[in-house]
Here is the input.
Amino acid sequence: MNFLLVIKFLLFSLILAYIFSIFIRKIAIYFKILDIPDKKRKIHQEKIPLLGGVAIFLSFFIVLFLARDYILSGNLNPSHWIGFFIGGLILMIGGFLDDKYKLSPGKQIIFPALASLAVILGGVGIEKITNPLGGYLYLDTIKINLGHIGDTVFYFTVFSDLLIFLWLMGMIYTTKILDGLDGLVSGIIAIGAFIIFLFTISEQYYQGDIAIASIILFGACLGFLILNWHPAKIFLGEGGSVFLGFSLGVLAIISGGKIAIALLIMGIPILDVLWSIIRRLIAGKNPFKAGDRKHLHFRLLDLGLSQKKAVLIYYVIAGIFGLSALFLQSLGKILALGTLVLFMILILILFYYLDQKKKNV
Here is the structure.
């Protein structure tokens, strides 16, 4: 790996994202595409411009295109990257429409679903995953022929395609729901991209093309984070929040099905989303329509932490568990995931105790 080249792409994406963020902020203000505080879940003090995700999207794919000789030097086909780009573009279009016109949840889900399908149709697949008990579990054993266009034959690979679809949808909705504090999503995805970079430059798992793509995403997130750190001058918006989860999800797959690494990085946010779904179902509410302030990041604020401190706690957890994946084998990663689950359960017990104590006062 040529590290001068890595630094060049990192700085280029960072500077480009910063410049784009400045211009897009002005555009969002001009067209009044703003996030208006409501003192409940939207806790900022004044109207904040949206559409910030456009800056990350543009800088990421522009630099990715400039690095195409390196990006196409690995085992991935151009169609894989094109599917990634089309999926991201779909999310940005859907995000713009939602930021401008406030789409219903039923309409919002169309764009993540189409984006996930674009990646699958681009040819991204998972041949096998590691079996913690030894060997591999093969996911490409059942294929359904969907026809062909010219010499290209299209298949529906049942287990692989379903796993990819569910994985990407899960990552998309995790960052969508997580996006509640300044710099939270952009910072965590930056950490995730950097950890995948470290993983793919290691001697055992070397993938130069994925390493370059990861460092470009890392730089784009950092460039945007300059203006997104508290107090934020621009927000990701719907498109940005879902695009970042989508991007980390795709990188985890194309880096050889390293879903366990992304799970360790995003473990607490994912568990928070799962608990929110369960909690709302128990309360008889639609889990995808009923927003509330019971997410972990809001509960940390209720404890008296500042936004910066709450966000830094997320960063530290994501960094520690993500970096642990670099030194753990399959069984070790499962144990680390189990530790995360236990940690989340203890947090839920703590907040339940505090809620009961408050009721009895």
About this structure: The first strand starts at residue 34 and ends at 35.
